[in-house]
Structure formats: structure tokens, C-alpha cells
Amino acid sequence: MYRFLSIVLFSNLIFSQSFFPDNKVQKMNNVNVNLHKLTSEITFVSFWATWCIPCIKEIDKLNEFIGDYKSVSVILVNEDRPGNKAKVKSFVRSKKYPISDTYHIVFDNNQKLSRQFNAQPIPLTLLLKNNKVVYRKRGFKLGDEIEIKSELQRIIDE
């Protein structure tokens, strides 16, 4: 058991990024952009998919309070298969996600970003400050939004 835990912890250290890379991704409008053009001093990032119920619950809860944080950027990295872009776009429109200059949904077409962050299973939530990962959470259950909001406020207050 100890050996297994050591391997898991070691692999998390190796496969987890400390800084958010400037990878090229595709936005919902099919425009390719480098990630750093979408970040701000403080950025909320979530790896998600339309089929992931905890992901959708997390985004729904995020959308209830993120408007209170005008200086925070949101990047939702979609993990659906590349062939499902039309389905994702339709889903986002039906949910009325507030896409704007600070709220982005992007496609990680080659899964490079997902591999860099060892993003499976999803959701994987990151809070960034100046593109450095300062908070990381895997999974979501109702009530976790309180912790996320608290961490976001703590990072803003630093």
C-alpha cells in the first residue's frame, strides 16, 4: 500500500504543471489563440466535458458567483472528442454560459494541455495567479463551490 501511494504521489509531482502554459487552443468561434491571451492576473480554469455531470454542476455553481469577480478570467477547457464540437457549441448555447472577453470556452484539440496537467479524471479545477497554479482540485460535489469561492477570495486578497 505504501509503495502504491508513493508511486501516485510521485507521478502527480512529475505530471502536474506549476505554470499554465501558453499553448494554442481553439475558441468557440473557431479562432486559434494562445492561452495567455485569455488569462488575467487571476484566472479560474476547469477541464470539463458535456457528458460529465460533476463538471456541469461545477460550472453552474461557478456561474452563480463569478460575475461578482470582474477581474477574474474564466477558461473552460473542453474535453469532449474533437468531432463533437457542434454538440459542445449547442450545449453551451442551451446552458447560456456567459461567454465574453473574460469568460472563454476552448477546445484542447490535441489533448496536449490535458496531458500536461494530467487532467483525467475531470473536472480538474485550477486557480492561477499570474499564470502560476496556486490551487488545484480534482472532482466536484455540491458544496465544493464554497471552498473554491473562498480560495478565489483568498488569492485576490493576497
Tell me briefly what this model is.
The protein has helices at 2-15, 53-65, 85-95, 112-116, 144-157; strands at 24-27, 32-34, 42-48, 72-78, 103-107, 124-129, 132-138. With 158 residues, it is an alpha/beta fold.
Relevant terms:
5 helices, seven-stranded mixed β-sheet, alpha/beta, globular, Glutaredoxin, 158 residues, single chain
How much helicity do the residues have? 25-40%
Question: What is the CA-atom radius of gyration, in angstroms?
Answer: 15 Å
Shape category = globular
- Mean pLDDT across all amino acids: 89
Describe the protein's architecture and organization:
By secondary structure, the protein is α/β, with parallel strands linked by helices. It has a single domain (2-157), classed as Glutaredoxin, CATH 3.40.30.10. The chain contains five helices and seven strands.
Mind sketching the topology for me?
Layout: H1 2-15, E1 24-27, E2 32-34, E3 42-48, H2 53-65, E4 72-78, H3 85-95, E5 103-107, H4 112-116, E6 124-129, E7 132-138, H5 144-157
